[in-house]
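Bench notes, afternoon.
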Amino acid sequence: MNNPLLSTAALPAFASIKPEHIAPAITQLLCETRAALATATSDATPADYDALSATLGVATERIGASWGAVGHLNAVANTPELREAYNAMLPAVTEFFTELGADEKLYAKYKAIAAAPNASKLSAPRQQALKLWLRDFVLSGAELQGEAKARFAAIQERSAELGQQFSEHVLDATDGYAYYATAEELQGVPADAVSAALEAAKAEGKEGHKLTLHFPCYLPVMQYASNRELRARLYRAYVTRASELGDKPELDNSAIIEELLRLRHEEAALLGFANFAEAAMVAKMADSPTQVLDFLRDLSRRARPFAEKDLAELREFAAKELGLSDLQPWDSAYASEKLKEARYAFSDQEVRQYFTVPRVLAGLFDIIERLFNVKISEQQAEVWHESVKFYQLVRNGVLVGQFYLDLYARPGKRPGAWMDEVRSRWARPDGAQQTPVAQLVCNFSSPVGDKPALLSHDDVTTLFHEFGHGLHHLLTQVDELGVSGISGVEWDAVELPSQFMENFCWEWEVIQQLTSHVDSGAALPRELFDKMTAAKNFQSGLQTLRQIEFSVFDMRLHAEVGSEAAVQALLDEVRAEVAVMAAPAFNRSQHSFSHIFAGGYSAGYYSYKWAELLSADAWSAFEVEGVFNAACGQRYLQNVLEVGGSRPAMESFKAFRGREPNIDALLRHQGMS
């Protein structure tokens, strides 16, 4: 069998990968990588950076790329057969990488490299990579012995299994819900959303309009449907996904959450930490859980008066203008949209007509080309869905990187938006220069009929956000795998480039490039942009508290041993402390909180607010020097994007701004200064 997962081609053959390829390929690659590990740790291989890279580095990079392709397909093109094949190999892959991270002989080799007299002569990126590897060996249990080491390995395997189950339950609960609404029930909902729901029902041979919990369908109903009963129905379904209150008890994530938390605290204890959050802080900019909670509570204190004012205004408007005297959570998006329309004389739906996908991409690519001196062009490659596009970045005739772009929501695709790496920049031991490749994934509304897909301004901001991650990965000039691109960047700093890019979406010069009315082709009028700008910080207090609520909940869950016994009680406590609008008793948002239970953000969700402080301060340089100022763009490129994880994020920030960050720009950007 010609197995595409065993190919050494530069790009994965995504369209050719089948479930039956997974077990044979990954089994073979595991055998080859174990052999490489044995060679690397033998006396025949010296304690030398290049020697280990040539033996073990090549083998682990290869299996990482193949398994990464399988994991990616599991996230964006999930089928029962693919899921079964992925889950069948997950324990073996987890076991190997756990053993690799805790291998005492390999750890000893790296310690010997670090202790050698010529260690100081290694390049700065290599010294940083070495430092991070030694840190990660400790966090991976390399210093544990006997039963403790075996238990640590068992925890890793079980945690990987539980994280995958959590993710599957959220996907299945999202995909599995449908409500077939009548035209009358959809009164107020935008025509394109109604058409898409009608087409979805027709495709199944059913009457009515198929409503799902996928965000491009869910959000327009919550924002625009005048039928309160319909909004309440969808809201309840959405916030009880994968919980004991959902319509499929077999998808309840309650037991998974409890076991994951218990295992995480046990893992931390084995490593000598008081709790999981303390262990997680080792790889972060922040020093401790206490420092993070203090930061979040300080921001909460500053935002609370604005949030209380936001809610009071919303309640008054809902009662007077909409007849909603008892404003409920399923009313808030609807009432907020009506209030925004009344106050600023425009609607999100009106703005949406100007943001067509082709025009937005053309404008985005132009910004990247102007600021970072690259050319972006579409190329051909094997993809996993017909709507996926593939592009390359070239500078002065030399390939810089490539990326896949998967924009639209569909069944079998994980909710949300993310960037993932296919491969990283690397000066390979054989002398070849490997260039980076990224996957940029969103879940926007698909095109309807012969019209291009339309994006809300929030969608455009999301797209720019993910491109910020992509540029961090693609524009690096670091040639060492462990610190190239986003690798090695502290988790609470990794959102700096992504949130930085969001700022472009609020600049008039940029908006003119991004907009073209779907019917007339006209750019967004200045008058409408001014209304958007006036509304930029509409309910920013409420939105800030919502993010702080998630962040405090996450940090406390992972900082308080025994939290698994009272997850709902802890969340209720956090909501009482932070939120100004009470959530209904049936709200089970934690059961679909994939970021912290299946997505790598455990004890790290605060990173969004932490990095927002950094990105706002970084953007203030462009506010002073000009959005398209070439010199400012080059400084940002050279001091932040190109250096990747080759030095601490604070050093990169200070190299760009000339000082440490302060909170003033963040508060000013959010209208809370």
